[in-house]
Specification:
The chain has two domains: 121 residues, Response regulator (Rossmann fold, 3-Layer(aba) Sandwich); 95 residues, Winged helix-like DNA-binding domain superfamily/Winged helix DNA-binding domain (Arc Repressor Mutant, subunit A, Orthogonal Bundle), CATH 1.10.10.10. Strands 2-1-3-4-5 form a five-stranded parallel β-sheet, with helices on both faces. By secondary structure, the chain is an alpha/beta fold. 42% of the residues lie in helices and 22% in strands. The chain is elongated, with a radius of gyration of 19 Å. Bound molecules: calcium ion. Calcium ion (CA) binds next to loops.
């Protein structure tokens, strides 16, 4: 898997390259926008990490140029800005995701993996432990027994499973599953999580949806 990093701060660029190489990705670094466009448009990458604030050509313009030639390659924005407007502009330019500096490397890595997984797999069957979810038939099985879920419960489980191993924040879940922002009252999320837990629970394996207090939920192996 080959990743392009376009980042003018050498410290951050090196930190990212070293971290990604440790994860067995092959990495090219461009330290300015011009070189970034040159590499992005002449070589093949599985994913690109592009800084927003670059001398010469901005990350937005690079992304627009990439999208003219390649609609599929996942692009993740690195941005120090957190204004909603900037984020929206980045996504409209064709970025798939963004991460705000400063960030934890693990968080970036998790997002990279999500992008690469979505790019390379048709997510028709998702599984965890003895649970499987079939998107084509909208069926869920645990240990071979079918579990009946409502449409909303199914969407919620699909989102958590798609991101298994990654913490899903309350806002992310609500935005994705309910397709709205309801920041003032997100209590129905907890209600649905409880419905799901009850339906999925087995004597053998107990709860698979873990609560991350104050942040959200995650499906992962218990430590
Ligand atoms: Ca920069």
């Amino acid at each position: 898997m080959k990743i392009l990093i376009v980042e003018d701060e050498i410290g951050i660029a090196n930190f990212l390259r070293d971290g990604l190489e440790d994860e067995n990705y092959s990495v090219d670094v461009a330290l300015d926008g011009k070189r970034g466009v040159e590499l992005a448009t002449t070589r093949i990458y599985d994913l690109m990490l592009i800084d927003w604030m670059l001398p010469g050509i901005s990350g937005i313009d690079i992304t627009k140029q990439i999208r003219k030639l390649n609609k599929k390659v996942p692009v993740i924005f690195l941005t120090a800005r957190d204004a909603l407007h900037d984020t929206v502009m980045g996504l409209e330019a064709g970025a798939n995701d963004y991460i705000k500096k400063p960030f934890q490397f693990e968080e970036l890595l998790a997002r990279i993996k999500v992008q690469l997984r979505e790019d390379h797999e048709e997510l028709t069957t998702l599984s965890f432990d003895d649970l499987t979810l079939e998107t084509t038939t909208h069926q869920v099985f645990r240990g071979g027994t079918e579990i009946n879920l409502t449409k909303k419960e199914f969407s919620l489980l699909y989102f958590l499973l798609k991101n298994k191993g990654k913490v899903c924040t309350r806002n992310e879940i609500i935005k994705e599953v309910w397709e709205i922002n309801f920041e003032t009252d997100s209590s129905s999320l907890d209600v649905y999580i409880n419905f799901l837990r009850k339906k999925l629970e087995t004597k053998k394996s107990g709860n698979m949806i873990q609560t991350i207090r104050g942040i959200g939920y995650i499906i992962r192996e218990r430590e």
